[in-house]
Amino acid sequence: MRIAFLYEHPTWSDQLLTVLQRRIPGIVPVNVAELRFDTDTSNCGFSAAINRINIMPSADRLPQVVFQTQHYLSWLEQSGVRMINGARAHAIGSSKAMQNGVFSSLNLAYPNGIAIYRQEDAINAAEQIGYPAIVKPNIGGSGSGISLYQNRAELEQAVQIKALDLGVDRTGIVQQYIRSDGFVYRVEVLGDALFYSIKQPVVTGEFNYCAAEGCSTDDPEQTVSTEQRATEGEDFDFCVLNNDAGGIQTHNPAPTVVDNVVRIIKASGADFGGVEYFIDTGTGQPCYYDFNPYSNFVSDGENLLGFSPEERFTDFVCHILNIGR
Length: 325
Ligand SMILES: Nc1ncnc2c1ncn2[C@@H]1O[C@H](COP(=O)(O)OP(=O)(O)O)[C@@H](O)[C@H]1O
Ligand SMILES: [Mg+2]
Description:
Shape: globular
Strand order of the largest sheet: 13-10-9-14-15
Order of helices and strands: EHEEHEHHEHEEHEEEEEHHHEHEEHH
CATH architecture of the largest domain: 2-Layer Sandwich
CATH class of the largest domain: Alpha Beta
Helix content: 25-40%
Bound molecules: adenosine-5'-diphosphate, magnesium ion
Number of domains: 3
Strand content: 15-25%
Structural class: alpha+beta
Distance between the termini: 14 Å
Number of helices: 12
């Protein structure tokens, strides 16, 4: 049995891949950042595929990788491959609009949002949502491209100079600004079960967070620059080892939150993934705002979590494919 392991970041999957390859014969790494494929479905060569692609575009990856990945995932499905996190999960992960649709269909609290593609439409959308309002690209990642507007004049000025960042597909969402209790919470699940959960403090007005790895890429105090991290391929990894930089902590979510995250994962067609939420100080309740159809592996996970996330993820894969050790 040949099983594709799909990834695109040069280093983020190294530890996981080592464990997967040790325990599951037939794992074949496929880096979608270099992907070209023969479209003949009889030539696919894989019976299953594990999708661990973070769709986030970055300076050293062409934006087209986002769309090439979508084509590949759908083509794998056409070829009859058993997908672990397939094309639908991936599509929802790359659409803030569809994520809001999932939260809404499950009757969960979420920041109201209006999907747009023309910059000028942001003004009416924000009028409807109310200020402060946020503009997010559908395909972002770690908060990239998100901006906050306190009033109509600020937004009009940005629209006038076409300063809204609607990301690589030039679509996005105007979203209600949520006043939180000062933390972002992230719950990761594998199937029906809690994988782990973390929380980290937010800095008001900053959005460029990696909630899994505990840092804000806008933080001027950081000892390693974003550029340096990108070129070294290490991105957010240092933060977890240096808790002072991001203050990442493990956290015990309420059982209802875990249930809701499992419902979100299933409604998104995913097998595993993570959901971010705030505690909305207006209601005192969780407000769900982001779904990521891949699991983040916090660096030094064993020390932070008390178990090896790589081994546990591999247990999960073995269980659903009924293979391995
Ligand atoms: N509606 C909102 N109100 C207030 N802050 C927000 C809101 N949405 C996002 N943020 C902040 O911006 C960060 C990134 O937003 P998110 O939707 O997770 O984007 P990405 O997909 O890029 O991770 C969040 O972790 C949070 O700190
Ligand atoms: Mg996020």
